[in-house]
Structures are given as C-alpha cells and as structure tokens.
Recover the amino acids of this structure.
C-alpha cells in the first residue's frame, strides 16, 4: 500500500483515498496480490455482462410495448414524449455500458508495477460505479414501463396522471405568487428587481406550460371518447382546474406589471439583462409539443445562475 501511494505521489498522480481503500480491502498483509486484482477484474466483467443482459431484456420489453400501441395513438404528443424519453434512457444506459466495456478491455488484469496497479484499481472502481448506476437507472425504467403500460390502456391512470401534472405545475404558480407577495409587501424583498425577474421567468415558462396542457387535455378527451365508459365529468373537472390555474397566471401577469412600476431604476436594470431575457424567451418560443420539461427546468436553472437569482 505504501509503495503504491508513494509511486503515485512521486508521479504527481492525484491520489484518491477511495481507490486506496479499495486496494487495501483486497490486500494481504499490506501487499496487493495480482490474483486479487485479476479477480476484481473478473467480477467487474461479470457484473457488466449481467447488467447489459438486463438492459437487453428491458429494451426488448419496451420495443414490444411500443409496437403494440395503436398507430393513431402512437402519433399523439403525449405518447411520443414518453416513447422518446424511454429511447433516450436506453441510449444513455447503452452508452455508459459501452464506455465501461472499453475501459475494462483496456485495463490490464495483472499490472506489472505499483503505479499501474493503482491505475487499474481506479479504472475498476470507476467501472463498478457506472455499472451500479446503470443498474439503478434500469430499475426505475422497469418500474416506469409498468406504469406506462397501464397508462396506455386504462382511462383512470391517464386521468389521475393529468391531475398530478396540474398539481406539479401549480407549484410554479405558488412560487410566482410568493415572489409577488414579497414585492408588494412594501419592499419586503431584499432585491426587488431580482424577485421581479424570477417571477417573470416563471411566468414566461408557465405560458408554455398552459399551451401544452391544453393540447394534452384535448388529446386526452379524444382518446377517452374511444374508450368504454363516460368520463365527461372527470374531463370537465380537469378543465375547470386548468382554467383556474390559467386565471391565476393571468392575475400574476397583471401584478408583475404593477410591481415593476414600484421598483427603483427598473428600466435601467431590465435593460442590463435584456439580451439574456431575449435569449431565454427565444429558447422557449422554439420549443414545440411534446416539450422536454426536464430540459426547460435545466434552462431555468441556467438562467437563474447566470443572472444570480435565488429563490428562497
């Protein structure tokens, strides 16, 4: 162990204590046996093969499920969004496993020198981590496929999920209203313009949300018309909730305009971020259903980081 550490430090290698601990766990009387490294290498390859086979099986299940979807339903925004999401997830898992396979292939089983032993251990530990992460992701994908299959066929599942979406996006409106409350409370916000700017971004994003939600609700209503049972009351309740949220959104826009008038130096401050705002709004305008909401959330976080905005 000391020899491996010394050689690594002598060669200016950024030594990881995690890697050294992994080596120590496989050492005998403080010395790392090549047989132990070779066995570690073997178990990594086996775990990789097993996980890759599991991904194959899940992907085959997904392909069969995708092929079973009615062609008309397959072309709707909501189904396309879910299919594309699973395609992306399987692509990511396969890419990670391919990179790991290359790493294992290029990693010697029995390194000839202490520094090479350290590098081998580092590569094997990295491979273990990636295979574990892929296995964790696969577990969530498999659970999601079960839900997706139910969603494809059961009206109650689709109705409940749409209601959950409304509830999730309602939290963005809650945040906007909280920011506006602080602005209107006689300057309670520490940085009034930052609070206004954050609220403006949330409002702009929610405009895109409502556009997609209305399209999704229309798709849902059309799909339900082809199913057994009368679901008119449930659809009407969802439409009422959506209308209520849209009314809150419109009220927030009016409050934003009114709040701007009370912020000292508002025009100058807004001009200073005009280019960033324009780029953000152009990004949103270019997005069409089905919208990748995870990407939109990342865009929001990037904007807030760029402008130094924090939601408290």
């Amino acid at each position: 162990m000391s020899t491996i550490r010394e050689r690594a430090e002598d060669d200016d290698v950024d030594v990881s204590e995690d890697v050294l601990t992994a080596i120590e766990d496989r050492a005998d009387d403080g010395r790392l046996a090549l047989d132990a490294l070779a066995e570690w290498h073997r178990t990594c390859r086996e775990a990789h093969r097993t996980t890759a086979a599991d991904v194959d099986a899940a992907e085959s299940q997904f392909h069969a499920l995708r092929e079973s979807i009615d062609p008309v339903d397959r072309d709707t925004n909501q189904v396309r969004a879910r299919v594309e999401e699973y395609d992306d997830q399987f692509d990511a898992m396969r890419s990670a496993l391919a990179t790991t396979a290359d790493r294992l292939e290029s990693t010697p089983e029995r390194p000839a020198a202490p520094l090479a032993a350290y590098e081998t251990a580092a590569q094997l530990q990295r491979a273990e981590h990636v295979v574990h992460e892929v296995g964790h992701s696969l577990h969530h994908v498999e659970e999601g496929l079960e839900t997706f299959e139910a969603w494809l066929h059961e009206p109650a599942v689709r109705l409940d999920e749409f209601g959950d979406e409304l509830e999730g996006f309602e939290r963005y409106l809650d945040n906007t209203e909280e920011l506006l409350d602080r602005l209107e409370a006689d300057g309670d916000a520490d940085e009034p313009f930052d609070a206004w700017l954050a609220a403006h971004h949330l409002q702009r994003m929610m405009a895109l949300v409502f556009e997609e939600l209305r399209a999704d609700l229309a798709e849902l209503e059309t799909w339900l018309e082809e199913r057994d049972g009368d679901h008119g009351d449930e659809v009407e309740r969802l439409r009422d909730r959506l209308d209520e949220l849209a009314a809150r959104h419109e009220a927030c826009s009016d409050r934003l305009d009114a709040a701007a008038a009370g912020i000292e130096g508002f025009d100058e401050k807004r001009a200073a971020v005009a280019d960033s705002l324009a780029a953000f709004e152009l990004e949103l305008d270019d997005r069409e259903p089905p919208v990748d909401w995870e990407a939109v959330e990342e865009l929001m976080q990037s904007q807030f980081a760029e402008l130094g905005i924090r939601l408290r």
Remarks:
- The chain has a mean pLDDT of 89.
- Residues 155-307 form one domain.
- Strands lie at 27-28, 31-32.
